Amino acid sequence: MKKTIILLSILALLLAGCASTTNITQPLEAPQATEVKAFGEIEIDKKDTKAPEHFIHAVESYIKQGLQERSLYDEENGKKISVSVNSYRMRKGMTRMMFGIFAGKDGINSTVNVYTPDGGEVLGSSEVNSYNVMAVGSQDDIARMHGEEIVKFLSGEAKETPAE
Fold first, then answer.
1. Which of 25, 101, 138, 139 sits at 20 to 30 Å (Cα–Cα) from 15?
2. What string of H, E and C letters represents the secondary structure of the chain?
3. Cβ of 19: how many Cβ atoms within 10 Å?
């Protein structure tokens, strides 16, 4: 019985270490309510952050995958998605292993804008923040969480949470 309680406590701590928040500044209309239901071109600008290209490509891949799973991706005729990376921080593996939670949290913060297919009008906007305060997980976990949170906003599944 004690082993079960200890195991459940450890699992709860690990799960509490990963989180995402979404601050929707301009909600999107439901995909069914607009003429163009799908999303297409995904443009990610990492600005002057030190986010590596492979990380940015992973986020883009998770966004495409999530939209395709929901039948909301049409590369040719969809609404344009612009993701601007505002901040990026990822501890090195050795630092994570040695200092864990005391080394600070890993994460990415982005502003997501959705435009009409011609790129003229902003249809919706959100700030997405994904982070991991534990030493468990990797860059790919953060990229996956961030991509999934962006897809939730795009598909209308996101529950707005207050910004930190």
1. 25
2. CHHHHHHHHHHHHHHHCEEEEEEEEECCCCHHHCCCCCEEEEEEECCCCCCCHHHHHHHHHHHHHHHHHCCCECCCCCEEEEEEEEEEECCCHHHHHHHHHHHCCEEEEEEEEEECCCCCCEEEEEEEEEEECCCCCCHHHHHHHHHHHHHHHHHCCCCCCCCC
3. 17
CA-CA distance, 163 to 146, in Å (whole number)?
15
Q: Which two tokens stand for residue 41?
A: 């071109």
Does the global pTM surpass 0.85? Answer: no
Q: φ, ψ for residue 157 (rounded to 5)?
A: -85, -15
**Which pLDDT value is given to residue 164?**
47
pLDDT tens-digit map of 125-141: 999 988 876 555 677 88
- C-beta of residue 131 within 8 angstroms of C-beta of residue 104: no
What stretches in the chain show pLDDT beneath 50? 14-16, 32-33, 163-164
Contact indicator for 135, 102 with CB cutoff of 8 Å = no
